[in-house]
């Protein structure tokens, strides 16, 4: 299968030398890319800035902002069989980014932010993607019901959800404990290295593919 994976954080410019970002390390997405290559898939990794090594055998497309990631996905998705959206895309970005560095003239500084485009939410409705679509959900409470809401709203085949209120899993650490939310049921994966979780997710692609073909 040809698989597109988004990973890492995005950077949203405040001025030419400053930006807003988040704590995403990119580990989950890079682990998925490596696991997918290991299973014989062809992988395009579209990634925001991380300090990770690009996995061997992966086609790599670096981006910075949510807008750049959106455009890269839009340009590439036509040739893909599956898409796994692990990126922690900024939900908001500063409006009116000045051409020059902001000087510290005032005692306070107010930034006005506007919503970025929802890449995962555009996959079906805007890009017309009909392949296997896997989203990620980072929640602090009611993990399964929020994840199921995202699954339905964004028309995913599976949402991988974790509880980011826990310090021992998820953001910026090597381990994760996730639930896999499908339209018909939910599977729980025990706490494990992200590399292991990645293999578990990639192993499920063929059956997702079969289910989709049977429903057509
Ligand atoms: N995502 C995306 N583009 C965005 C924001 C999010 O592709 N601009 C993707 C993420 O990669 C992830 C999924 O959407 O796969 C979940 O993102 P999240 O921000 O948690 O979902 P939202 O629907 O924006 O809900 P909320 O932030 O209110 O929880």
Report the mean per-residue pLDDT as an integer. Answer: 95
Sheet of most strands = 8 strands, mixed
What structural class should be given to the helix and strand makeup?
alpha/beta
Q: What ligands are attached or bound here? A: cytidine-5'-triphosphate
Low-pLDDT runs: none
Biggest sheet: strand arrangement: 5-4-1-6-9-10-12-13
Tally of helical runs: 6
**Per DSSP, what share of the residues sits in E-state strands of 2 or more residues?**
25-35%
Gyration radius, rounded? 18 Å
Mass-distribution shape? globular
Question: How many extended strands?
Answer: 14
Helical content (DSSP H or I, runs of 4+) = 25-40%
- Please provide the ordered H/E string of secondary-structure elements: EEEHEEHEEEHEHEEEEEHH
Q: Terminal Cα separation, in Å? A: 18 Å
């Amino acid at each position: 299968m040809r698989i597109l994976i988004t990973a890492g954080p995005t950077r949203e410019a405040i001025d030419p030398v400053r930006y807003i970002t988040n704590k995403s390390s990119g580990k989950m997405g890079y682990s998925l890319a490596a696991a997918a290559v290991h299973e014989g898939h062809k992988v395009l990794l579209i990634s925001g800035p991380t300090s990770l090594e690009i996995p061997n055998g992966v086609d790599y497309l670096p981006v910075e902002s949510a807008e750049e990631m959106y455009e890269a996905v839009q340009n590439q998705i036509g040739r893909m069989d599956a898409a796994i959206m692990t990126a922690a895309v900024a939900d908001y970005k500063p409006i009116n980014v000045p051409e020059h560095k902001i000087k510290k003239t005032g005692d306070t500084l107010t930034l006005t932010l506007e919503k970025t485009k929802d890449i995962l939410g555009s996959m079906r409705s805007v890009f017309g993607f009909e392949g296997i679509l896997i989203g990620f959900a980072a929640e602090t409470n009611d993990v399964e019901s929020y994840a199921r809401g995202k699954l339905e709203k964004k028309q995913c085949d599976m949402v991988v959800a974790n509880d980011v209120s826990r310090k021992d899993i998820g953001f910026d650490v090597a381990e994760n404990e996730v639930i896999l939310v499908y339209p018909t049921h939910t599977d729980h994966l025990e706490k494990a290295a992200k590399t292991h979780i990645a293999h578990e997710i990639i192993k499920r692609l063929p059956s997702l593919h079969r289910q989709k073909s049977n429903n057509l």
